[in-house]
Amino acid sequence: MRQRTRVLVVAIVVSFIAFLDGAVINVALPAIERELGGGLTLQQWAVDAYLLTLGSLILLAGSLSDSFGRVRIIVAGLAVFGIASVAAALAPDGVLFVLARGVQGIGGALLVPSSLALIISTFPQAEQSRAIGRWTAWTTAAFLIGPLLGGVLVDLVSWRLVFWINVLPIAAAFWLVRGLDAEARPEARARIDWVGAVLGVVGLGGTVFALIEQGRWGWASPGVWVPLVVGVAGLAAFLWWEARSPAPMLPLSLFRARNFVVGNLSTFFVYAGFSLGPFAITIFLQEVAGFSATAAGLATLPPTVLMVLLGSVFGSWAGRIGPRLFMFAGPLLFAAGFLWTLQVHEPVDYWVQFLPGIVLFGLGMSVTVAPLTAAILGAVDPARAGIGSAVNNAISRIAGLLAIAGIGLVAGTGLDVGGYQRTAVATAVLLTIGGIVSGIGIRNPPRERLSEPG
C-alpha cells in the first residue's frame, strides 16, 4: 500500500472509531439504564463522561501530536480507547461504566486531531483538500451506520457488544499504522499547556457534575454547589491563564476576528441544540413510545441522510453568496422541526408527530453545518486553520456536554411526554438564539472573494 494511501486509510479508520462511538451510544442508553440502573442521571453521564474528557482535552491532544508525533499519539489513543471499550463492556455497575466512558473520551481526544494532522503533514498542499474531503465522506458514514448498528446489537445480543465491537477496527488500525512512524516525526517539539489542560478539566468537570447531580441532591447540597463554585472558578482561571500563557492551548488572539467570535458563539448555541434534541428523542422513542433500539436508530436516521445528500450543496451555495443567510435560516429550520414535535401525546404516532419535524431539522442541519464551518475557518489566517478548527471542534463538544448535563433542569427526572416537550422547547430556544446571533453578527466576505473560483 502506498504511503499516502496508508496514511489516509489510518486517518479514516481512527476517526471512524471515535465518531462511531458517539453515534451509537444514544440508542443503547435505555438498555444500559435497565441493566445498570441510575435513571436519567446515568444516561446523562454515559454521554457526558465521554464528552467531558474529549472536549476538555482535544486542544491539548493537538499539542501532544505536534510534540511527540502524530503516529505515536494515534497509537496511544488506540490503546487507551481499546482498553476503555473493554472496560465499558465488562462494567458491573454504573460507576465503573461512567469511568470507562471518561477514559474512552481521552482516547477519542488523542485520535481525532492527530488523524487530521497526519493528513496535513503527509499530503502536499495541492492534494490536502481532496484528501480531507475523502476523510470527511468516509467518517460521515459512522453517523449513518452507528444508530442502526447500535440498535441491532442491543436488540439481538446486548448493549455490551456496542463496546466489544470497537476491538475489531482498533486491531485493524494497529496493523495499518505500522511503518508510518518514520515519516510522522515532528521537526521540533511544541510546548504543552499542562496548566491550561488541568484548569479546563476542573472547570468543565465541576460545572457538569453540578448540573447533572442537582436533580438528585438539589442546589442547596454542598455536593452540588461546591463543585459548581469550583467549576466556575476553574473556567475563569482557565481564561485568565490562557491570556498569559506563553504557549496557550486556546490562543485567545484568534477571537480578534469578528466572524470567528460570532461563528463560535453561534456554534455553542447551535451544537447545544444539535446534541440536546436528538438525545431526548432517542430516549423518548424507546422509553415512552415503545420503540426497539433498532427502530429508534432507523427513526432518527433521516437527518444524517439529508446531511450526506445536501450538506455539500448548501456549502457550495454559501461559497457563492456568503454564509450569513444559511447560518441564520438553518438553525431556525431545525428549531421549527422540534416545535413540530410538541404535538406529541400518548399513544405516540411517529409518522405524524415526529417524522415531519425530524425531516425539517435534518434540513436545518444540512443548511447550517458547512457554511458555519467555512465562516469560522475563513476568518482565520490559513496558517492557523488547524488550531482554528480545533477550537471550533472543542466548543461544539463542550456545548453538547453542557446541554445534556442540564437536561434535568427542564425535563425533570425523566423524559415522559411533559419532560420531552419542555426539552423540545429548550432545544428550539437554543437553536433560535444561535440563528439570530449569526444573522446579526456574521459578515459575508467581499463579493469579489465570493466570485473567485474554488
Note down, in words, how this protein is organized.
Helix content is 80%, strand content 0%. It is mainly α and 454 residues long. Helix 1 packs antiparallel against helix 2 (39-68) and helix 1 (3-36) runs antiparallel to helix 7 (167-176). The radius of gyration is 21 Å and the shape is globular.
Offer a concise description of the structure.
The chain has 454 residues and is an all-alpha fold. The chain has 18 helices and no strands.
> Which structural class matches the secondary elements?
mainly alpha
Assembly of the depicted chains: single chain
> What is the gyration radius calculated from CA atoms?
21 Å
Q: What's the story with the biggest beta sheet?
A: none
Q: What spatial form do the alpha-carbon principal axes imply?
A: globular
Helical run tally? 18
How much strand? under 5%
Helical fraction? over 70%
The N- and C-terminal alpha carbons lie at a distance of: 30 Å
Low-pLDDT stretches: none
Count of β-strands:
0
Q: What value does the average pLDDT take? A: 87
Order of helices and strands: HHHHHHHHHHHHHHHHHH
